[in-house]
């Protein structure tokens, strides 16, 4: 009985701690205005939803391992902290909460909703293949449409809000395709919002993952990062425009933007 009480108290402490951090981010991004509630699931609920983290349900992995699962009686994509990387637990928590907070601010048909399951994987999967699977032959018409839909999402983020949102990690791996091959921009862990009246956000961060910049304050992925941002650390909408340009070349050529040794 005593052990059960301690377990309950520990869970309650984590709920309060994470909820407080999330609320702080929401208030900052919303400039103190009311925020919509976000449901927090327990570790046990996530474990059940992923069938005890069944490897057969893994959709992909990077900074996080993404599982297909069932929550609230619907198919969802569930992100779980992936293999150890060169950053603290606090940084990882902040990275995940940032995604939740920023996504809550964006309501657009070409942006992935919270937990939304996207059946056709990413644009990168379709262009370059994944796990030895045969790639989908995307027509030129679909390629142009996917690029256009991605630009719509970025345009909304940059100019459709009081506080512009800069994604900072636009790449083919972060553009998901639904059953109709509709583009859905995702993964907002590096995203920042620029205060009204300001021209830029002076950025700094702890980079994450093997494809990301180590030992620097640059957010983003090798091969997609705007060189001007890399030099100044000043975040503007142009950072996303440069990265989107790299994606366009990738879409038109079907070649990866960088070659790994």
TrEMBL record:
One of its GO terms (molecular function) is protein serine/threonine kinase activity. Keywords: ATP-binding, Nucleotide-binding. One of its GO terms (cellular component) is plasma membrane. It comes from the Eukaryota. Residues 1-261 form the Protein kinase domain. GO terms for biological process: cell surface receptor signaling pathway. It catalyses: L-seryl-[protein] + ATP = O-phospho-L-seryl-[protein] + ADP + H(+); L-threonyl-[protein] + ATP = O-phospho-L-threonyl-[protein] + ADP + H(+). The keyword Cell inner membrane does not apply. The keyword Nucleotide-binding applies. This is Wall-associated receptor kinase-like 13. It comes from Quercus suber.
């Amino acid at each position: 009985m005593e052990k059960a009480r301690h377990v309950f108290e520990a869970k309650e402490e984590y709920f309060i701690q994470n909820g407080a951090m999330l609320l702080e981010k929401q208030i900052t991004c919303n400039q103190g205005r009311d925020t919509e509630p976000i449901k927090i699931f327990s570790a046990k609920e996530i474990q059940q939803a992923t069938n005890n983290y069944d490897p057969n349900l893994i959709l992909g992995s990077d900074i996080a391992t993404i599982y297909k699962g069932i929550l609230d009686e619907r198919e969802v994509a569930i992100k779980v902290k992936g293999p150890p990387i060169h950053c603290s637990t606090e940084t990882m928590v902040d990275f995940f909460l940032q995604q939740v907070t920023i996504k809550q601010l964006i309501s657009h048909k070409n942006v992935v909703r919270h937990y939304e399951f996207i059946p056709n994987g990413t644009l990168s999967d379709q262009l370059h293949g994944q796990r030895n699977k045969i790639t989908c032959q995307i027509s030129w018409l679909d390629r142009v449409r996917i690029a256009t839909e991605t630009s719509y999402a970025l345009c909304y983020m940059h100019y459709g809000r009081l506080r512009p949102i800069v994604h900072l990690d636009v790449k083919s791996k972060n553009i998901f395709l639904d059953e109709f091959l509709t583009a859905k921009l995702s993964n907002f862990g590096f995203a920042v919002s620029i205060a009204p009246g300001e021209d830029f956000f002076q950025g700094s961060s702890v980079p994450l993952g093997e494809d990301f910049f180590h030992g620097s304050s640059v957010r983003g992925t090798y091969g997609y990062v705007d060189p001007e941002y890399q030099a100044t650390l000043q975040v503007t909408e142009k950072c996303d425009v440069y990265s989107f340009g790299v994606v366009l070349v990738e879409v038109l050529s079907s070649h990866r933007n960088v070659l790994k040794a």
